[in-house]
Known about the structure:
Layout: H1 2-14, E1 24-25, E2 29-35, E3 38-42, H2 50-61, E4 66-72, E5 77-82, H3 89-99, H4 103-107, H5 113-132, H6 139-157, H7 162-178
Antiparallel strand pairs: 1-2, 2-3, 3-5, 4-5
Helix pairs in contact: 6-7
Amino acid sequence: MHIITGLLLSKIFAGSGKTKSFKGFRGIVEVKHAIPGRVRFHIPVLKMNLEKGEMLQQQLLNAAAIKELSISPILGTVLVRYDERKIDVMTLTGVLAKLLGLEKELEKTPKSLMGQEVNKVLKSANSSIYEQTDGLLDLNTAISLTFLSMGIWSIIRSPSILPAGISLVYWAYNNSMMKME
C-alpha cells in the first residue's frame, strides 16, 4: 500500500517526467506562451493602462537583448522577441515585475482559490451567528465556548484521560486570545 501511495504522490508532484517550463507569477506577471526567443506575458496591471505600457516599452526597447516588443493594453499582454543568448524568460519576468513596480505583489503570500472560498464561508457563518444571537456570540467565541465546555466535560467524565480535556481547554484559551491581539 505504501508503494502505491508513493508512486501516486511522485506522479502528482513530479508530473509526467517532462521538465516544466517557468510560468511566471499567477495573476501578476504570467508567462502565457514561450518558445526560444519569443514570449507572451499576461500582466493584468497593464490592462487599459497606456501610461505604464508606454513606460515599459521605452525602458525595454533600450535593452540590447530585446529585439521587438508589442503591448496590448486591451488584453494586458506583452509579446517580447528577445535574444535568448543574452537573457532568459525568468530574468525577463523579473525585469518586467521590477519595471512595473510589482515587487510587493510578488512578496505577498498567495491565497488559494479554495482558501478564499473557505474564508468567505467562515465570514458568512460568523455574521450569521452574530445576527442570530443579537450580538451575544460570534463564530470565534462559539468555538472557544465549545472547546471549553467539551474540555471541562472531558475532565469531569474521565479524569484519568487528562491530556484530552486539558488540550481542549487550552485550545479554547488560545482561540479566545487570538481575537484580543
